[in-house]
TrEMBL record:
Keyword Nucleotidyltransferase annotated: no
The entry's keywords: Membrane, Signal, Transmembrane, Transmembrane helix
Sequence intervals crossing the membrane: 448-467
Full protein name: BatD
Keyword Transmembrane recorded: yes
Pfam family, one: BatD
Signal peptide span: 1-21
InterPro entries associated with the record: BatD (IPR025738)
Coiled-coil stretches: none
Length: 591
């Protein structure tokens, strides 16, 4: 019995060791010696599935493909054969001797390691031009090209770089990834999104090819002289036809991993000419229009107007400064609000930029806004151009008079002098004869008029005291005064909006102010606190129907967008009616 027991234990130990010995995990390389222009394939094979595969650091190599995973299972003579492989494709960085260190994996709770492999990298080797060699076929049938619109631009002139991948009709591409993105040093750059890659037909060096546009970039050079555009590099998986065929006669394909590059491009950037360069030139290059626009030309003191300095057109809109307004000191001017409405396409930046000034006159009079000019370099005519805005006069109709104002600040129409009107009856004869009539005596001291005049001042004293007290209370109510003023302004601006129907700019400025002042009166918040989200939350808190809240926010958005889009008179009337209806509805519901 003891012998049988020992034999059983021995068999168990032997079977366990045999099972353990059956697990293999090894590294295989396609070659031990290769040229720097060749590729190395490394396979990590195991005969049993495992977890937590950890590849080595491939020091001295770039990973150009992988890891690719392959699993195969077969049965022979009733026995199951299993193989799992992780494959990597490497390209050497430099010549020398390199060691591919151990990879590890966990199988059935045990850690297995591969044997390190030593690889020698030599100088580039000549590879025969074998038409059947997959790498040769790939090199001849796939090309990455960087097309530059202008190799000799001016400083700050837009150029475009379009990257195209050309593939011959008999070759396929199953996958690619960018391994080296270009950095555009000394350029302002903007990538243009490509939503869907489209396969197009074209020619490359006179031969028919298919191609896709992978990337479009707009560049504005910021330095003169020779500037380099770094190359874009891709790792591409290429499907190459072979001479082998399947059972149906179809040609079999083989995969080749290849690194292709568009190559670097050198751009020679010309400086802008010195001759004729304006003193106020700030670097604008392109084709532009320049305007200074005011929201109104006549107003009363303490009212506000908007003066917008605007440049629109095609050019480096984001890369120069707008000229500043020069205004009389009697006008209160706030810091300008800068806005940009610019899109970038293959023609460069297009759209408009502007500085919007809020101006509040304090005194009655006429205020000139002096003409300002904008200079830019036109690349089409290769010359500088200047556009002047022209003088604008702001007429303040009603308000206090500035007695200390200088001629620069207020230009009155006639200096306060009144013309003398000559009257032919200026000197009349004095009558010397008199005609006297008797007056009927009237006892005034006992009349109703006498007692009314006597008692009325006495009765007015307590009334005046009450009125004065009410006025003091009203003056002390700062919040109430702001609300009343805002309410009054809302009604006035709504009236101005109605008068300005047909004048898009003035209409939407007045309508927006009416909406804002209404909210100030109803929600008791300052203009500086306004955001659409806060307005929405506050109105909903005040138990206003969400339908009217949404309508109110939509009108505010219309006021912002309408200044940059074409609007008809009918649409303006609809916005006005909608605003009046919404304000009325909110006024009834707000609590």
């Amino acid at each position: 019995m003891k012998i049988i027991k020992h034999i059983s234990l021995l068999l168990i130990v032997l079977s366990t060791s045999i099972a353990t010995a059956q697990v293999t995990f090894e590294a295989k390389v396609s070659k031990k010696k290769l040229g720097i222009n060749e590729r190395l394939r490394v396979d990590f094979e195991m005969n049993k599935d495992g977890d937590n595969f950890n590849p080595p650091d491939f020091v001295g190599f770039n990973i150009v493909g992988g890891p690719n995973q392959a699993v195969s299972t077969s049965w022979m003579n009733g026995k199951r054969s299993y193989k799992k492989t992780y494959s990597y494709f490497l390209s050497p960085k430099q010549r020398g001797s390199f060691t591919i260190k151990q990879a590890t994996i966990e199988i059935d709770g045990e850690i297995y390691k591969t044997t390190p492999q030593t690889i020698v990298v030599t100088a580039a080797v000549d590879r025969p031009n074998d038409d059947n060699n997959p790498e040769t076929i790939a090199s001849n049938n796939i090309h990455l090209v960087a097309e530059v619109s202008n190799g000799n631009p001016y400083l700050n002139e837009a150029i475009t770089v379009v990257y195209k991948l050309y593939v011959s009709p008999d070759t396929g591409v199953s996958n690619w990834r960018e391994i080296d993105n270009p950095r555009y040093n000394d350029f302002w750059s903007q990538n243009i999104d490509i939503k869907n890659l489209k396969v197009l037909n074209g020619t490359y060096k006179g031969e028919d090819y298919r191609y896709v546009v992978l990337r479009k970039t707009v560049l504005y050079p910021q330095k003169t002289g020779k500037l380099e555009i770094e190359p874009l590099s891709l790792d591409v998986t290429i499907e190459i036809p072979t001479n082998r065929r399947d059972i149906f006669g179809g040609r079999l394909m083989t995969q080749v991993h290849k690194t292709i590059s568009a190559g670097s491009r050198t751009i020679q950037v010309k400086p802008l000419p010195v001759e004729g360069k304006p003193t106020d030139f700030t670097g604008a290059v392109g084709d532009f229009e320049f305007n200074v626009i005011t929201s109104k030309s006549e107003l009363n003191a303490s009212e506000s107007l908007q003066a917008r300095v605007e440049v629109k057109g095609n050019g480096n809109l984001k890369l120069f400064e707008l000229p500043k307004l020069s205004l009389p000191s009697s006008l209160e001017v706030y810091e300008p609000e800068h806005s940009e409405n610019v899109v970038t396409n293959l023609n460069g930046m297009q759209g408009s930029i502007s500085d919007s000034y809020t101006i509040v006159p304090q005194y009655k009079g006429k205020y000139p806004i002096p003409s300002i000019s904008f200079s830019y370099f036109d690349v089409k005519t290769e010359s500088y151009k200047r556009i002047s805005s022209g003088e604008i006069v702001i007429n303040v109709l009603d308000g206090p008079t500035n007695t200390t104002a200088s001629d620069n600040n207020i230009a009155s129409a006639n200096n306060g002098k009144q013309p003398v009107v000559v009257n032919n009856q200026q000197f009349a004869f004095i009558k010397t004869s008199t005609e006297l009539t008797s007056i009927t005596p009237n006892n005034f001291f006992k009349s109703t008029g006498f007692w009314t005049g006597l008692l009325l001042p006495l009765l007015a004293i307590p009334l005046a005291i009450v009125i004065r007290k009410k006025k003091q209370e009203r003056d002390a109510d700062i919040t109430g005064n702001k609300i009343r003023k805002a309410d009054k302004l809302a009604k006035r601006y709504l009236g101005e909006a109605k008068k300005a129907l047909g004048n898009k700019e003035a209409f939407y400025v007045a309508l927006e102010k009416a909406l804002h002042n209404y909210l100030k009166a109803k929600l008791h918040i300052e203009t500086s606190e306004f955001t659409k989200e806060k307005i929405q939350d506050l109105l909903l808190t005040k138990q206003v129907d969400s339908q009217f809240v949404t309508s109110f926010i939509a009108i505010l958005k219309n006021c912002e967008l309408a200044r940059y889009t074409p609007i008809t008179h009918v649409e303006m009337q609809q916005d006005y009616d909608k605003a009046a209806k919404t304000i009325s509805a909110i006024d009834k519901q707000i609590k």
